[in-house]
Amino acid sequence: MRARLVKTILVLLFLSLFGILEASTISCRNEEGEDVDWFIFYKVPKGQDKEGGETGLEYLYLDSTIRRWRQSEQLMNTNRSVLGRTLQQLYEAYGSKTNNTAYLVYNDGVPKSMNYSRKYGHTKGLLLWNRIQGFWLIHSIPGFPPIPEEGYDYPSSGRRNGQSGICITFKYNQYEAIDSQLLVCNPNIYSCSIPAIFHQELVHMPHLCARSSSAKIPGRHLTTLQSAQGQNFLHFAKSDSFLDDIFAAWMAQQLKTHLLTETWQRKKQELPSNCSLPYHVYNIKAIKLSRQSHFSSSQDHAKWCISQRGTKNRWTCIGDLNRSPYQASRSGGFICTQNRYIYQAFQRLVFYYEDCDWAL
Questions:
Q1: Which residues form the signal peptide (predicted)?
Q2: What does the pLDDT look like over 78-101, one tens digit per residue?
Q3: Residue 229 · residue 132 · CB < 8 Å
Q4: Which residues, other chains included, contact 320 with Cβ-Cβ below 8 Å and sequence gap of 6+?
Q5: What is the C-alpha to C-alpha distance for residues 331 and 308, in angstroms, rounded to an integer?
């Protein structure tokens, strides 16, 4: 009788502990609210044709459980969107006021402000984690997201142009490497909470949060990160002392591949395609959504690149910086993967790109 009672108590304790761990799991989430290892979104620009019906809130979606872009049935400004579902965990953590969850929100374009400080990196993102795991969302949307106490919303300024982003779920043992990458990127943090239980392993984030960092920042740093389900990623981080185009001077040469780059092509603020180094960098000039629909890079605030078709190394990178002479002196980074479904999805978006002969 006693043995049965002890066994019952142990089972109940195990189930209770399992329930606590399950409840505390932080992850990227799909539109159904289910955990995924990673997801990517591509918000399309607001339609220039009034009859087209595009509101600037529609987006394409890809995650670790599917193989091709999917047109979302949700709009980006609803809490049922992939960003709304994922960020709900931030609002829950903020509301609970617990000391076992940390978050860090950054953007060079702070919400409700028109000031863009060059003191910080040209970076936009959000991290939320506990001592089990968390996620890192990297995106291109100025003024997003609002501070946690205001809940979810999508800025009206983010509708006009295309936007992109990637969310990756990481076990806690990856956050020490992320901590070092953030130091190099020097993000403009406008909301954060990092309880003392994290300070021993994560030495830079608390100082970045308090805007008191005095650590020596390397010119650039490359690290390998592994998602919660074992997908490998490379993260490139450059500081403002690395005075060059991150694509041509570093990424293409490091990855040993010609790159097709899609970044915001503002007039008189773009760099031409570059074929002066062993591995070339070409500017994508237009994106196709379908055979009948495409848009110009001048309408696209997204920031990504892929290996040129036919090359051996098939890389896809998503991140922070534009190909612009003004951003050669800005800090920021890109996270890269050789996942073939991600590569194929982005390769299908390329309508045409600028060759070096054309650039001349």
A1: 1-23
A2: 999 999 999 999 999 999 888 999
A3: no
A4: 121, 122, 123, 124, 138, 140, 185, 303, 332, 333, 334
A5: 25
d(CA 150, CA 139): 20
Termini Cα distance of the chain: 87
Q: Give the residue extent of every domain in the chain.
A: 25-359
Q: Are 251 and 261 in contact (CB under 8 A)?
A: no
Side-chain-side CA neighbours of 355 within 13 Å: the count stands at 2
Task: Check whether 185 has a pLDDT greater than 80.
Answer: yes
As a whole number, the mean pLDDT across the chain is 90
pLDDT tens for 109-141 read 999 877 777 789 999 999 999 999 999 999 999
Q: Does the pLDDT at position 166 exceed 90?
A: yes
The residue with tokens 């607001």 is: 46
Active site residues: 301
- Angle at CA of residue 62, ends 59 and 68, nearest 5°: 105
Instruction: Give pLDDT, residue 119.
Output: 86
CB 124 within 8 A of CB 303: no
* Residue 101 one-letter amino acid: T
The label of the residue with tokens 């939320």 reads: 128
CA-nearest of 88, 82, 79, 86 to 69 is 82
